[in-house]
User: Fold UDP-N-acetylmuramate--L-alanine ligase from Irregularibacter muris.
Amino acid sequence: MTTPDLDLSKHHHIHFIGIGGISMSGLAKILLHNQYIVSGSDIQSSPLTKKLESKGAAIYIGHKASNIDNADLVIYTAAVKSDNEELKRARELNIVTMERAEFLGQIMRHYKKSIGIAGTHGKTTTTSMMSIILEEASYDPTILVGGELDAIGGNVKVGNSAYFVTEACEYVESFLHFNPYIGVILNVEEDHLDYFTDLDHIKQSFHKYAQLIPEDGYLIANGDSENVSSILKDLNCNVVTFGTSEDCDWQAKNISFNDMGMGCFDVVYEGENLGHFQLSVPGLHNVVNALSAIVCAYYLDIPLSVIQKGLTLYKGTHRRFELKGKIHDISVIDDYAHHPTEVTATLAAAKRYPHKKTWCIFQPHTYTRTLTLLKDFSTAFQLADEVIIADIYAAREKDLGLIHSRDLADAILDNGTPALYLGDFPAILNHLLENVQPGDLVITMGAGNIDQVGNMFLTELAK
Assistant:
């Protein structure tokens, strides 16, 4: 899937439909930094839109045809439908329109050393790790990450070098518009089944992504994953594998965890121990994420000592096992996990965190994902002591009546883990206030707005 080159010098006023999205806002910031006139619309105001406004962007709340007045290029997200007022008006006026992923791919063409980090899970964390390492190496990269990273002051950083690092999302095959010099594939699993037909369709898409990497570039792939290994044929680029098994080119060995669950490990390449690495984020999954970043940095000629320091400096991204607060010896953590594998990994990391009882407050994300992965979700919470299920966060979908959060709570309970459907946030808050005890750990989990429950709970505890 290739897109003709876009000559950005011919465009001066660029309008974003859905500018409040994490990636869209990042692209808008890059353009503002380069002195473009930027405007955009979204259905509601947010900290991201307010930050853009403070930097000079014109922000419109609500979609109206008049919002695109004077724009000569319009960028829209995959969620924007063809009947959107602004998109229809742009096409009537023959204004150039481009989907977000296509536009990001165009931007990547301006960077000789672009890095696209793909996978069903771990993209934001690994992109953030890689960003910190590049910064520590003084490579002055441009960074676009799908979360808020304190080290760069948000979700984007505009550098002045050939290095660009971004997440490469597989949803609607967005990443097939990208132009990676280095591509990382962390894992490949069933997800986004509102778009993909099945797992084979997903693997085909990741294979096409790997084929985008040039002959002198690198694919850094998780050799522990059978699904990833199955897509490594018929590639012209350099293929390098990482993982914990002996079959991998790069291996994490002697893995251990400190009292807070932070991992440390040795890195072995071609039989040689290259050194010991300490992380400041918890969980075995982050050891694997970090190993992929180490390999990537190595092929960018970053010294191992710099990589080691960069990883210790990475303290996490907002909404990725983020400690929101601790009051009356009750810890509240928020995590973005919304897939069964992510839920299991997060709860495994939490098991190593000092606490008595684990309360997992889960908000399912989209009806399609909840329905198609219900069986996997039903066993994903077994490391929690108590599970509370909130109403499904619809996101881009409509409720067709095929699945309800109550179904998920019942399925978890049937598999032996205490689970309760409470639905709305006030009911969940009251239950927590009545039942959580000092020493307990509360984890709000999901890709929607479930983090609000943790904030509300901490506010009440502080009274």
